[in-house]
Specification:
- With about 260 residues, the chain is an alpha/beta fold.
- It has a domain of about 160 residues: Rossmann fold, CATH 3.40.50.
- The strands form two sheets. Strands 6-7-8-3-9-10 form a six-stranded mixed β-sheet, with helices on both faces.
- A hairpin with a 2-residue loop joins β1 and β2.
- α6 packs parallel to α7.
- The radius of gyration is 19 Å and the shape is globular.
- The mean pLDDT is about 90.
Length: about 260
């Protein structure tokens, strides 16, 4: 983890989100620095998804503030967050199975041909997209994606996840938010995705990892933000607390002193 020397890359203060009488978020703070993995854990209904959607522009909080690199931001849609350098990979994986790997990396960000061919006839520069995709995948060290022209529908679950994470790394200039990236993956593929998470961190991105898998969380996280009943129950580290402690805080069997929470 990079030692924080400047303003957090992403900071949320006092986030509140309600759905009628249901409280999704109750005055939640979150701080993420460049070059760190912040895991977000919590039981079902703890507010993890609502928190991530507020950070990524999918939901607008009722109260609270968001800052990117110390500057206030107001996300009204996911595109606003992407333009601010925040990429999100949801558990459902928004990939186009029929398209190849390079086309998926540049999905909705396609590179047009230069001159009238691109501006008038809207022709894509497939060669340039494949070249850049190959460079990015090589830089991330993704050895499982050998053929950039391969259709995503022919890839394994872990390889598809690698494509989605690579896209987040390619365009998330500041923050990558990963929602359950190892769900339904085997041991080997899980290890490959966790390596990608560490690689993104080592490249200086702030990474938010949402996961139910405690061994995965304790393997890669620098800090762990625990959600419970819509609020933050505390922030711990793998060095300061055990997996059993984390589960106890999640369930309410154990509470942290105010300074830690």
């Amino acid at each position: 983890m990079t030692t924080p020397t400047s303003a957090p890359v992403l900071q949320a203060k006092g986030l509140v989100k309600t759905f009628g009488r249901v409280v999704g978020l109750d005055n939640v703070d979150l701080t993420l620095h460049r070059g760190e993995v912040l895991a977000v854990i919590g039981d079902n209904g703890a507010g993890k998804s609502t928190l991530i959607k507020c950070l990524s522009g999918a939901l607008v909080p009722d109260e609270g503030t968001l800052e990117v690199d110390g500057r206030p931001v107001h996300f009204k849609r996911p595109q606003d967050a992407r333009e601010a350098g925040i990429e999100t990979v949801y558990q459902t994986l928004a990939v186009a199975p029929a398209l190849d790997i390079a086309s998926n990396l540049f999905l909705a960000r396609e590179i047009r041909r230069k001159g009238p061919l691109g501006s008038v006839f809207r022709m894509l520069d497939t060669g340039e997209m494949r070249h850049r995709a190959e460079e990015h995948i090589k830089r991330l060290g993704i050895s499982t994606l050998q053929n950039i022209n391969q259709a995503v529908e022919t890839l394994s679950g872990g390889q598809r996840q690698a494509v989605a994470v690579a896209r987040a790394g390619a365009f998330g200039s500041k923050v990558a938010i990963l929602d359950e990236p190892t769900a339904a993956l085997g041991v080997r593929e899980t290890g490959q995705v966790l390596k990608l998470v560490r690689d993104l961190r080592d490249q200086g991105l702030g990474v938010i990892l949402i996961s139910h898998n405690m061994p995965n969380v304790f393997e890669v996280a620098d800090r762990i933000h625990i959600q419970r009943l819509g609020a933050c129950a505390g922030v711990i580290t793998p060095q300061s607390h055990s997996m059993e402690d984390a589960v106890a805080i999640m369930t309410g069997a154990k509470t942290l002193p105010p300074a830690a929470a």
